[in-house]
């Protein structure tokens, strides 16, 4: 599966700072100082109802991570999946009387278009669940053969007891995990499971549903969590720098994925930091595919909204915060974009070297994009109030905003 084209990232003078970021597992801020190559895995979409603003906010956060690392002169290996076969996708296709593969392909293509318009840097490895199946099956067989998985009526489940670190990503108690498992695709009430929290690794073929050769597992399809584990281990290995996604993925998805990987390899941890973006609401409720209260990037673009303004609207909120999309949020972003573009359109201006360092410092501090925007706002105000004579300043501001914030002025 191919990703989307990369926009050029301008080079800035000097060098960026190492990233300090909030880690869900330790519930504190840690400093990430990778070697010459930084490694990040971000969980991708299930391709229907793409791309809504909640999606965009999440991928914007991890785009900032890439930009901070690139500014430190590191190479970045970024991996993202597409869950192009899963119960919710099949249910949507059935509801709308569509072929599930056509639905997945169309929505994935739309997601690529939106990511391109928003200037999100693409992953080097963009992998669909279906194409990952040949690598998933041997991992499930290994877990079963090691006693970390078991069969139940033809399905194969992972035993959470196989990982002594289980629970260490989300830090939830058993009852909270059980409730979330039921809400988020698990089946804690199924009779015969060794532990209600045990997640499915391989689902035996069901009538009328797609299935693939699972070797000794029989025909079927993979569970949700093992999909990302197989892709991450294949392209990043253990101990990569960041496992990222929305806050609703901390449990069960990232918790279970970490346990799968740790049971497979005997190594800990799967990722050095588990980083989660907040949820976006509309009319007082979290944007949700099930509720249908979604604002789509593609619809905003068709209505003539500049993608740079959409991105500024996302950047005006801290990535870990839950916030609400409103017309006022978008209007403020449109006005900010106009002010910034007018300020950098002048032939000269006030010096901007200090601004570069302010933006770097803000982003290195747990991706504090609102502080970075405020720093640019201050430069713009001074630019409008002062007759500067630095001919290089407007260009430097434009390159800084582009390189570090992904906004083209």
Summary tags:
409 residues, alpha/beta, Rossmann fold, Four Helix Bundle (Hemerythrin (Met), subunit A), 2 domains, 5-stranded parallel β-sheet, 4-stranded antiparallel β-sheet, globular, cysteine-glucosaminylinositol ligase activity, nucleotide-binding, EC 6.3.1.13
Short description:
The chain has helices at residues 53-71, 87-95, 100-117, 129-145, 174-183, 224-235, 250-265, 297-302, 307-315, 327-344, 353-364, 369-385, 393-405; strands spanning 19-23, 28-32, 37-42, 75-82, 125-128, 149-152, 155-158, 200-204, 220-222, 240-246, 271-277, 280-282, 285-286, 323-324. The chain is α/β, with parallel strands linked by helices.
Description of the molecule:
The protein has 13 helices and 14 strands. A hairpin with a 4-residue loop joins strand 1 (19-23) and strand 2. The protein has helices at residues 53-71, 87-95, 100-117, 129-145, 174-183, 224-235, 250-265, 297-302, 307-315, 327-344, 353-364, 369-385, 393-405, and strands at residues 19-23, 28-32, 37-42, 75-82, 125-128, 149-152, 155-158, 200-204, 220-222, 240-246, 271-277, 280-282, 285-286, 323-324. The protein has two domains: 19-297, HUPs (Rossmann fold, 3-Layer(aba) Sandwich), CATH 3.40.50; 306-319 and 326-405, Four Helix Bundle (Hemerythrin (Met), subunit A). The longest helix is centred in the N-terminal third of the chain and has 19 residues, at 53-71. The model has no long low-confidence stretch (mean pLDDT 97). The chain has 409 residues and is α/β, with parallel strands linked by helices. Helix content is 43%, strand content 16%. Helix 10 crosses helix 12.
